[in-house]
Every structure is written in C-alpha cells, then in structure tokens.
Amino acid sequence: MVDTKNLDPKFNPFKPRPKKETQIKKMIAVVSGKGGVGKSTVSALLATHAQRAGYQTGIIDGDIIGPSMGHLFNIHQPLFGDDAGIQPGVTETGIKLVTSNMLVPNETTPILWRGALITNAVKDFYTEVIWEELDLMVLDMPPGTGDIALTVFQNLPITGIIIVTSPQDLVSMIVSKAVEMANKMNVPIIGIIENFSYFVCDDCDKVHYPFGSSKGKMLSEKYNIPLLGQLPINPLINELADQGRIEEVESEDFTWLIETIMEA
Amino acid sequence: MVDTKNLDPKFNPFKPRPKKETQIKKMIAVVSGKGGVGKSTVSALLATHAQRAGYQTGIIDGDIIGPSMGHLFNIHQPLFGDDAGIQPGVTETGIKLVTSNMLVPNETTPILWRGALITNAVKDFYTEVIWEELDLMVLDMPPGTGDIALTVFQNLPITGIIIVTSPQDLVSMIVSKAVEMANKMNVPIIGIIENFSYFVCDDCDKVHYPFGSSKGKMLSEKYNIPLLGQLPINPLINELADQGRIEEVESEDFTWLIETIMEA
After folding, report:
1. Please, what is the end-to-end C-alpha distance for chain B in angstroms?
2. By 3-state DSSP, what share of chain A in percent is helix, strand and coil, each rounded to 5?
3. Do residues A37 and A165 lie in contact, with contact meaning Cβ atoms separated by under 8 Å?
4. Is residue B167 within 8 Å of B211, Cβ to Cβ?
5. Rounded to whole angstroms, what are the CA distances from A152 to A29, A35, A111, A126, B26?
6. Class of residue A174 by CB neighbours under 10 A (exposed 0-12, middle 13-18, buried 19+)
7. Taking the domain B19-262, which CATH number applies?
C-alpha cells in the first residue's frame, strides 16, 4: 500500500555553508507548481534585467534533470574547479551561472540521477561554487513540490519566492499547493507572475486568451499575495530564447519587476 | 563535489506483479522531457477517444507530485480498498482511473513524498489496483527523465511510448534525452505528438506560431520516429479541461491517433 505519511520537512541537522568568498545579498527562488509555464525564461529575464540595472547577478539552475539555462544563455562549456571550489560560467553580460548541463560530457545525455544525488546537486551549486559578491541570486527551482523544492527551502537562505503561473486552471490548482508549502516552510512570498496571460494577433490586433481567462488576480486575492505582472505569449521572446539570445530581450515589464524585487 | 556516476538503470531483482484479475492488453506510456507541453491533456484525450471507440481503457496518473487527472475528469472521491486490492475511480464514460489526489484528504494539500515513496506509488498503482480486463492502459508519466520514469521503464510491461513535445526548442532538446533514455531501456517508441503547434485567430484566420516554428518534423526525421500528429492550441479544449469536462471533447485528430495506436 501507498504510505501517505509526510516526512518532517523542517528537520535539518546540517545547515550547508557557502564558500568564504561568497556573499549573496538577496536570493530569490522562482517556483511553479508544474513545468511549462515559462518559469526558466522568467528566471532568465529577471536575471538579465537585474544585471542590466547594475546588480551583479547569479543564477542557479535548480532543474537538474531538465536544465535549460545553458541553452537560454548559449553557454556550453564544462565547469572548472579545484580544491578551492568551482568557477561558475559567465554569460555575455556577466551573469554568473551554474547548470547541470555543464556536468555532462554530451548535452543530450539524460541525467539519470536518483533523488539524493539530485538534491545534493542543488546544495552543492550553492556551497561549492565560488560566487563571490552577488547583489542577487536567482534560483530557478525545478517544477513541483518534490524533493528538491523541499531541500532548497530547508537548506538555502532564501530571501523570498516568486511564483510563476499560467492561466491554465490545472496549473493554478498546483500553484495553490506551492503557496501552502511555502507557508509551511515559513518562506516569504514576494508575489505571483502570470505568464502566457494573453496573445495579440499582429494582423487584426485581437487579444486572445489561448489558455483560458486570467486566474492571476483570483489567485492573488485568494492567497493575499501581490500580482507582480501579467505577461503575454511573445513569439519574439520565444525566438530569442530558442537562439540562446535571451540577454538581448529588453522588456519594461521586467525592468519594473526588478525595481520592485530589489526594493522589497 | 557532485557525483556524476549514473546508477545501473537495468538492475531489477523483483519484477512487480499485478493482481490476478488484472489483464492489460496494451500499456502506453505518455512521456515528455519537460512539463507544460500538455502531456496530461493529451493522455486524457487518448483515453477518452479509445473508450469512445469501444476499448475498455484505464489511466494511471504517474505524476504523483503534480496530479491533474482528477481535475480533468472531475473525479474527486478517495480510493477505496481492502485486502483484496484497491478499486480504481470510474469516469463518466467508464474509464478506470487512479491518481495520487485520491490519496490525500484535501486536494490542495501538497504531496511531499520523498523519492522512494513516489517511485513506489506508481508501481503500487499498477500492482495493487484491481484493473480487471483493459484493452488499453494509458500511463501518464511525470515530466522528465527522473526516478519515476526510470522505475516505470524498468518495472512495468510497457508496450510502447508516445512522446509529447511542443515547438519550443528547449523542449525539443529535452525530448531528445527522452528518446535516448527509451533506447537505452529498450522500450519501443510509437511516435511523437507535437502539441501547441499553431494557433488560428478566429477573427482574421491568420495562423500563428506562438511558440516558434514546428520542430516535430525535424525531430521525427532526426530520430527516425513517426510524427503522429501536430495539434493546435485550442482554447475550447482548454476550457473543457478546466471544467473537468474533458470527456466531451471530440477530435478527429485523436480518433485517428487511437486507430493508429491500437493497430500498431
């Protein structure tokens, strides 16, 4: 039979410590209940706009089994390290980045790590990498409320979390689970970003809601969490993301988001 | 340091056995590299159209931490079982269904199971449920190439797998990992379904490619796998899915898909 008893999520005898050179002012975890809401793209655009605004920014790609940051930023070199620690990758505009794709010889090799190894990888990205001084660390969490999410919430000094959602109701149901988990873990929620909210036909300007009407406002009121933004489906962003040129995107939505987050 | 050594994926001393009443003719695993490509909706529509075509169909919702089948089919009762086994839920049209939401008291409660428990849950859904005779079992796999995918490929008698993808290139990169994993595990691939391929403006009939141009054909040729279909973003299907009325969808695409799959 299936055992429904939850393990105690707050048990943590060994709090992990980063390298002595590492000083991170703010660490934001970007979460979603389910995959496919564009969470990684949102994380990358938050980092891009923070770096552009003059904040030294880092990214931990917490999606160990489905990493995408290397592709978004067109960084494919393996990680280099010695006894002193691991050097992160550095993007075109100077963002420091670590992703699991940098650990496998061929990027299409599936990463078949078992749970404990996956969990340790995220912790190791925090403790073993020489991040030096960062104004902002964007932690792109894996989708869901599984092991890695739990471990991150237990172990890393998260300043706050941002929940990325989409108008699909199924996603909203699962986001409500993420909110409940964050509350249980006592991690503050900065706000909700609704992605894929609408789509504008560039021929006739009709505004479409391909994934259903917006649920961001409802979710925001239900859980008393700020709705930070509602973003359209933007083929141009998707194309630049595809081509590893995410740093070329300039979006007023994200400029505003970064102001809000850094002042929070 | 991060240990990149993979565990042997083929080691399996104890092959799980189903209940003696259970006889499953075909078991199709629906997989994707990443979440959010509409995999669960595609699984539900495959099951719906198979059942409508006269095949007794079952569904295992393998997405233990992000289940959606209960919502899609508007089934919310808890599972009932005794020493003889567990009775599956039954949908409006007679599809037999098991999902992890049926195991928690409140459906918004997050399921914080650790890896081994998650893995066992999928096996238990196969071995402990009294499925009786099924022409088709649709196994909605969790996204990614993680523990559950591995265990299912190792343990359950999968007839073949269907890969659901979307035009986002990031997804395609990850699908290639799923293909590689399936090959390693020696599970035949029935084909690829590309979801969210295009969107038609209902005002001016312009065809849009909101997530970029189709990659299904390229993937199909690259891996020599049939491209079974390219499905549009359909607000009507999303709305019925939202309302738990997925069984009301009638789609020629899926009628054709089921013919292809059942004859394969």
Report:
1. 46
2. 35, 20, 45
3. yes
4. yes
5. 9, 17, 20, 10, 40
6. buried
7. 3.40.50.300
A63-B124-A175 Cα angle (round to 5): 40
> Which chain A residues are within 8 Å of B170, Cβ to Cβ?
40, 68, 71-72, 241-242
| Pair of tokens at residue A129 | 């990498």
Tokens representing residue B118 in the block: 């998650």
Which residues 12-31 of A are in CB contact (within 8 Å) with B? none
- What pLDDT is recorded for position B51? 98
Q: Does the beta carbon of A233 lie under 8 angstroms from any beta carbon of chain B? A: yes
**Over chain B, what is the mean pLDDT?**
84
Q: Would you call A27 exposed, middle or buried from its count of C-beta atoms within 10 A (0-12, 13-18, 19+)? A: buried
pLDDT (mean) for B72-98: 91
Task: Show the beta-strand stretches assigned E in chain A.
Answer: 23-31, 57-61, 80-82, 85-87, 89-90, 96-98, 133-140, 160-165, 189-194, 199-200, 207-208, 227-230
ipTM for the predicted complex: 0.70
Contact A203 B199 (CB under 8 A): no
Contacts of B36 in chain A (CB under 8 A): 34-38, 143, 166
Q: What are phi and psi of B38, to 5 degrees?
A: 85, 20
Token couple for A110? 């599936």
List beta partners, residue B192: B163, B227
DSSP state of A129: B
Which residues does residue B86 pair with via DSSP β-bridges, in sequence order? B81, B129
Residue in A35, A150, A168 nearest the CB of B112: A150
Return residues 105-164 of B near A (CB < 8 Å). 107-118, 120-121, 124, 128, 143-147, 150
Domain locations in chain B? 19-262
Determine the Cα–Cα distance for residues A7 and A28; give it in Å rounded to an integer.
Answer: 25
What DSSP element (H or E) covers A22? none
pLDDT digits (tens, 9 = 90+) for A53-73: 999 999 999 888 778 899 999
| A70 vs A68: CA distance, rounded Å | 6
Query: In a 3-state reduction of DSSP, which class is residue B99?
Result: coil
* C-beta neighbour count of B40 within 10 angstroms: 32
CA distance A172 to A183: 17
Query: Is the pLDDT assigned to residue B4 strictly greater than 50?
Result: no
**Residue B206 structure tokens:** 């312009």
- The 3-state DSSP class for residue B206 equals coil
Task: Kindly list the distances between the CA atom of residue B63 and the CA atoms of A21, A119, B11, B58, B77, in Å, as whole numbers in the listed order.
Answer: 40, 19, 23, 15, 18
Does pLDDT of A6 surpass 70?
A: no
Amino acid at B259: E
- Model confidence over B212-254: pLDDT tens digits? 887 788 888 888 888 999 999 999 998 899 889 999 999 999 9
